[in-house]
Specification:
It is built from two helices and no strands. The chain has helices at about 15-25, 30-65.
Length: about 70
């Protein structure tokens, strides 16, 4: 496996500048910000649902263990 590498590193001869240039021109900062805000807006209801389910489970457990319902 080491016989295939000449001159220290096999990655040294690769030029990624065309790929980097293509990516930076294809994706703008406004698109990245828009994507992040959409992900956050999509996730907020799931966070509230998680806390709501935890609250309901706590209410149910205290009702079963303690014999009364408190909100």
């Amino acid at each position: 496996m080491e016989g295939n590498v000449v001159g220290g590193s096999a990655m040294a001869g690769l030029d990624f500048s065309p790929v980097i240039t293509a990516l930076t021109t294809a994706v703008t900062p406004a698109q990245i910000i828009s994507l992040v805000t959409q992900i956050i807006a999509f996730g907020i209801p799931f966070v509230f649902m998680w806390f709501g389910i935890r609250k309901l489970v706590k209410i149910f457990r205290s009702a079963v263990m303690g014999g009364r319902i408190t909100v």
